[in-house]
Amino acid sequence: MAAQAQKFPADIVDCHHHFIEPQNNAFQGFLKSLGAPNYTCEQYASDCGALPISKTVHVEAMPDDGVAEAAWVESLADRHKVAAVVAKCDLSAPDAAAVLDGLAACAPKLRGVRFILDYDGPFGEDNATHVQCSLHGLDYLRDPEPAAAFERGFASLAARGLSFDLQCCPAQLPAAAALCAKHPDVAVVIDHLGKPRHLSQARDPFDAKAIDAWRRGMALMAAQPQVCVKLSMLGFAVPGWTEHDGKRALVKSLVKETVDLFGPDRCMFASNWHINGAVSNSDGADSCEVTMPELYATFQAWVDDWGLDAAAQRALFAGTAATFYRL
C-alpha cells in the first residue's frame, strides 16, 4: 500500500484500539480459546511509529470479566497515553448495575461501555454474526425478549454519564436507530463504519444491494443527533481495498459519504489496532497488511482530496473523539 508521502495530521486521538494478553490474563480466556496472541501496550507504541498520537481510547476486547479487564487497562493507562476506557458490560444481564458500579470503582478513566451486538443468524454461517455472539446466539436489538432486557441496561447509562459503543451489523441499524430515538440522552458511537460486510468480492465490482441496506441504516442513525461514528476497520467492508484501485476508490467513497451524512463533528478516524495490520484493518476478513502510519497517511490524503478545511480535519482526527469521550 502506498504511504501517500507519509503526511500526517498535527494531532491524533486514536479512539479505538486494544491491548490483549490472553497468554497471561485469566480474564481473557475466550480470546485464548480463539488462539489470539498477546498484543501489548509496548507493541502498540511501536506500531504507532512517528504518528503524533496524543491520547488513546482503549475499547474492550471480549474479556470474560469486564471489570478485571478495565482494572488491568487502568493500571497501564498513564504510561501509555490511554485517556479513556470503554469497558465490557452485558447490559441485558440481571447484574448489569452491579457490573457498572464495579467498573466505575476500578477505572477512573471509564467513559463508556460496549457489548458486541452484531447478530444475523447462527454463527458459523456465511453471515455478519460476530464470534462473540456465538456465546449467546441472541439478537439484542431485534428479538423482543432480549431486546427489552438490553434496553433497560442501555437506558441506565445516561444517569451514570456513560456512552455506548454500538457494534452491530447493517441489518440491525434500523432497530438501533429506534432504540436511540427512545433514549436521546445516551450518547452513542457506531463502531467501524456500521460494519458493512464484504461489499466487494472481486477486484472491482461491488454489491449494490448490500451498500443500499447499509446506507438506509446509517441514514436512520444519522437522524439521531447524539450518534457519532468511527471510521475504522475498512477491510471488513471491502477486503483487499489497500491493494486494488477500484476497491480503494469504493472505500474512499463510503467514508466520504459517511462524513457527509454525519458531518465531521460526528465522525472520528480510528485504528482498531491489535494483533497486526491485517486483523486491525479487517477483523480477520482480509490478509492484506497495512501499517498504522500508512493507514493514517491515507486518511490524511483523503481529507486533503476532499478539500476539508483545518477545523473539519481537526475534528476527524482528534476533536470529535475528545468531545465524545470527554478527554
Automatic annotation (TrEMBL):
The record's annotation in InterPro entries points to: Amidohydro-rel, Metal_Hydrolase, Metallo-dep_Lactonases
Among Gene3D superfamilies, the record links this protein to: Metal-dependent hydrolases
Give residue ranges for domain Amidohydrolase-related: 13-327
Q: Which family does it belong to?
A: Belongs to the metallo-dependent hydrolases superfamily.
A Pfam family cross-referenced in the UniProt record is: Amidohydro_2
Protein name, per record = Amidohydrolase-related domain-containing protein
Where does this protein come from, organism-wise?
A: Aureococcus anophagefferens
Q: Which GO terms describe its molecular function?
A: hydrolase activity
